[in-house]
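= Protein in question =
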Amino acid sequence: MRKSSPAQWVVRVLCYVLGLFFLAMGVAFSANSDLGISPVNSLPYVLSAVTPEAVQLGPIALELNPGNCVIIVFCTYILLQIILLRREFKWVNLLQIIFSTIFGYFVNFTKWIVGDFLIPGGYAGRLAMLAISIVFIAIGVVLYIEAEIVPMPMEGLSLAIAGKTGVAFHNMKIIIDCLVVLTGVALSFICLHKLVYIREGTIITAIVTGKVMALVKKPLSPLIQKVCFGGVPAEAEK
């Protein structure tokens, strides 16, 4: 993790949280496109569809809406990281819990912002909605990655498994993405006897988002480096 002044740390956290908000907006648009949710959010959304609306935890009734399911699933990824890494687990990565919770609330909030009134008619309109979601997701990922604080839980899990197995991170990320989507597909068919939230848009998002990220990173990265690190590239600090 790079060194920063207190003021730069505040800016980095704000940049990270802004990235989560853009990411959540992308999730909301992809949900409304009805062409499939992004791979990283597919399992929480399917889980919200196959579970009761709420569970009673003593005096507290926990709503199992998409946002809360995101928090539950992402915290499970963090627990798996701790089990896998044990003493190698860096406790700063527990910040993933805080950011996962913020992201979960953003998912519910942006779902409310987008609402049902932005559901498009016709397949072309749904594709346009999916395209907007991919742009939001790409911007969000670039923002929180460039802030260089902690990885999001699914990426953290991919890094942990990659480190233990020797598999390259990008290959492990693909494997984890596929396993998460397949788990969502299995849950959907077993519990609902139909497929929900996972469609061709899930595959399109998985393929296209990386390319869009490369496009938005060119103008965004120098700006983020300037406001977060005073324009000093990571290589220069080594």
In short: DSSP finds nine helices and two strands in the chain. The chain has a mean pLDDT of 88. Residues 6-231 form one domain. The longest strand covers residues 54-57.
